[in-house]
Automatic annotation (TrEMBL):
The HTH hxlR-type domain, residue ranges: 20-118
Protein name: Transcriptional regulator
DNA-binding in keyword set: yes
PROSITE patterns in the cross-refs: HTH_HXLR
Organismal lineage: Bacteria, Bacillati, Actinomycetota, Actinomycetes, Pseudonocardiales
Superkingdom, natural source: Bacteria
Keywords: DNA-binding, Transcription, Transcription regulation
Provenance organism: Amycolatopsis pithecellobii
One of the record's GO molecular function terms: DNA binding
Pfam family of the protein (one): HxlR
Amino acid sequence: MSGDGLETDQLVVDVFARNCSSRGILEHITGRWGTLALAALAEGPFRFNALRRKVDGVSEKMLAQTLQALERDGFVHREAEPTIPPKVEYSLTPRGAEVAAKLTALIEVVESAVPQVAEARARYDAAKAR
């Protein structure tokens, strides 16, 4: 064990397997805040507070934890300039940009389906109420 939570000598890569190393990575990407942070960063680099305003509803603590996990996984780059106060900017790595493009496409599908989903929910709720 290398101490980073991933076994380097016997890496299991099958997301459906209980011990698959990719499950934790997938959780960081597909959690509510991870998805939104990556999609926002697809628009370009952001400073922390600007990103927090963009991702409406995320707490400072949750955004910091999310960005740290995504940085650790290699999807986000954190650039800190040694100024007073420090200027910290977040951007996507090439791997992060690849993931963000797929998430953005999914978000577009979901957003375009909102009217149909609302109709489906209404039909379902009406059928359950009978």
